[in-house]
Amino acid sequence: MASKYRGRIAPTPTGYLHLGHARTFWIAMERAQEAGGQLLYREENLDPQRCKDDYAQAAIDDLKWFGCSWKEGPDQGGSFGPYRQSDRTELFLNAWERLKDQGFIYPCDKSRKDVAAAAQAPHSEDDAEPIYPEAWRPPLGVGQDADSPGSINWRFRVPEDRKIVFDDGRLGPCAFECQRDFGDFLVWRKDGVPAYELAVVVDDAAMQVTEVVRGEDLLISTARQLLIYEALGLQAPEFYHTPLMCDMGGQRLAKRHRSLSLRELREAGHNPATLRQSEDWWSGLED
Predict the structure, then answer these.
(1) How many whole angstroms from its chain centre is CA 53?
(2) Residue pLDDT, tens place only, 5-19
(3) Burial, 139: exposed, middle or buried (Cβ in 10 Å; 0-12, 13-18, 19+)?
């Protein structure tokens, strides 16, 4: 790791956080402390339909109750703010323009449903995103005269016959084949906000994050994001992907499954230290 370690936790306020989130963020905090570095808190609140202010405040309050701490964030400021993605639009637009001018991205009028329904649109077992059909790609140069993203999706043009390889701090060497494991992916959405892949690259680079700690369900996102780092000429951080926490039925914890939240655990009087010693907490973690 770099000597000036900077880690981050980045909740999305679309619901209350659950114990799986807390474990990932706790690991991020521990790795920052062990490296003698700093941890920042970034609120990834770009989805205008699903992100709510109440959930954003609940995330801060519940993580502090759980014992997590950070040196920078929307609650206390810092030198790399603002710490809410909705306040960082200009940075994202600058990155979109650079990618557009160099021909790395193109406008796309196809929806996720269109891609999923397309003939011969397989997808990796590790990812829920179908492979975008190469036949739908426009010729090089299409969209380069645009002066704004407009009300249309924009996709990154993933190269063919290329393997993306990186060393994960927990899993070791990881490799993904372009156009087999993932295809052209969204970088800008038609509702006027950047997609996850672009936003986190821009923010992690601007905030000088040296290691990204997040769940192993985002391994393919890392491969995509490494292409964006390369296209923008930015130095990529190191990565550490944590195991996912599952319930007693073997299903991974998720907001959409209404998994037991930190807020519910807190209101029920649970002790965070006891939760961190539970069998669920240690499930999947190496000794």
Answers:
(1) 20
(2) 999 999 999 999 999
(3) exposed
- Number of Cβ within 10 Å of residue 234's Cβ equals 15
**What is the per-residue DSSP string for 83-120?**
-BGGG-HHHHHHHHHHHHHTTSEEEE---HHHHHHSTT
Integer CA distances (angstroms), 273 to 31, 65, 86, 276, 286, in order: 18, 11, 34, 5, 19
Torsion sign (Cα): 246, 252, 255, 257:
negative
Length of the chain: 287
Q: What is the pLDDT of residues 161-210, one digit of tens each?
A: 999 999 999 999 999 999 999 999 999 999 999 999 999 999 999 999 99
Q: Do residues 52 and 43 lie in contact, with contact meaning Cβ atoms separated by under 8 Å? A: no
136/115 Cα distance (integer angstroms): 10
Tokens read off for 13: 């306020």
CA pair distance 24, 241, nearest whole angstrom: 9
- Whether 259 shows a pLDDT value over 90: the answer reads no
Q: What is the pTM of this model?
A: 0.91
As a whole number, the mean pLDDT across the chain is 91
CA-to-CA distance for 105 and 180, rounded, in angstroms? 19
What pLDDT does 245 receive? 84
Rounded to an integer, what is the distance from CA 240 to the centroid of its chain?
13
Three-state DSSP class for residue 148: coil
Q: How remote is the C-alpha of 22 from its chain's centroid?
A: 16
Residues with Cβ < 8 Å from 65, sequence gap 6 or more? 262, 266, 272
- 10 Å Cβ neighbour count for 172? 7
Range 42-68 average pLDDT: 97
